[in-house]
Specification:
The protein is mostly helical. It has 4 helices and 2 strands.
Length: 133
């Protein structure tokens, strides 16, 4: 499978983050459960993106959505030390997902090694040149 271009991955990640933010706001109760669900979604999204820069950008978008809409109930955008911890958590989650996705698809796309046939003299033999007995 061909890697997607970054110009498509970042807007796609943004759209997925916005849709997930809306779904989390509607269906997950207020509290840290919202952040945990969003972090898990960003691990999966990072694995699908398979591009560290796109995963990093998507995590920053997820952090801004989390800070502005999911966890902040003050009616205005404020920042605290906990916000920085959540940013680092989302960055690590997305980058971990991206690395896992790259490794998974790289391993899956690796060609299978052909078996080596060895003659009785312990020399490799081309199976196409020998007759079937």
């Amino acid at each position: 499978m061909r890697r997607h271009e970054i110009e498509l991955l970042i807007p796609t990640g943004f759209a997925v983050d916005v849709l997930c933010c809306v779904a989390i706001a509607l269906f997950v109760p207020i509290g840290m459960a919202r952040f945990v669900v969003f972090a898990a979604i960003n691990v999966v999204l990072g694995a699908w993106l398979r591009h560290p820069l796109a995963a990093f950008t998507t995590a920053v978008i997820a952090w801004s959505l989390t800070t502005g809409f999911l966890l902040n109930n003050l009616g205005e955008l404020t920042f605290s030390a906990a916000d920085l911890e959540r940013l680092v958590t989302l960055l690590v989650a997305a980058l971990l997902g991206s690395v896992c996705g790259m490794l998974f698809w790289q391993r899956r796309a690796a060609p299978e090694l052909a078996p080596v046939v060895v003659s009785r003299q312990n020399r490799p033999v081309d199976p196409m040149l020998t007759s079937a007995e």
